[in-house]
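Quick question, first post here. What does this chain look like in 3D?
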Amino acid sequence: MDINSLNKKLQGLKPKEILEYFIKEYGQEAALSSSLGAEDQVLTDMILKIDKSANIFTLDTGRLHPETYDVMDATNLKYGVKLNVFFPINKDVEKLYETQGINGHFESIENRKNCCGVRKMEPLKRALAPLKVWITGLRATQSVTRTDMSVVEYDENFKVIKVNPLINWSEDDVWDYIKSNNVPYNKLHDQGYPSIGCAPCTRPVKAGEDIRSGRWWWENPEHKECGLHAK
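> Answer (accepted):
Ran it through. Tokens below.
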């Protein structure tokens, strides 16, 4: 079935119904990549209510906030699971330090993308290699780079079907679900962090600012992707 046909088939379905379709059709070959942010916590709750053994993984870059580890632990405890964790290759991290230092990512977009490449892209490639379906928590209103995304796409970079069940949800939709279902969430969200990544590259945003403005704030908005969700 091609992507256009899939989008037509799933048109009008709720996120949980979309998840049910792919989990039933693909089993362990479908997985959620979770950043442990609010959207991914919503999807984790939905997915584990469908199938307790469903495939959910996260990337530990080595530079996450302590609060991110707290929500990982809270999630494992609430649902009685252990999220799969992928780490960077240690020799690649050592080489990164040798070439651009610990905080060289602030010096240029090239350096920052090198850091993302080692800490995120390579582990993600390993995580996605055995999969046919990649489930994400992307929403259209999160960034100017995401406004034209569909519920289902084909990711040419990773050669997988990419599913965005929450693409049409608002931020209010996300938080209404979290509160209604008592979903564990990252406490940094309460401190002005709508989008949470690595600690050095994430800061709180002020009222009225774009929700992605706290990510790589020293770069222009059109550059604010690490490569995971590049078109």
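Residues 29 and 131 are 4 Å apart (CA to CA).
The beta strands are 30-34, 55-59, 84-86, 133-135, 152-155, 160-163.
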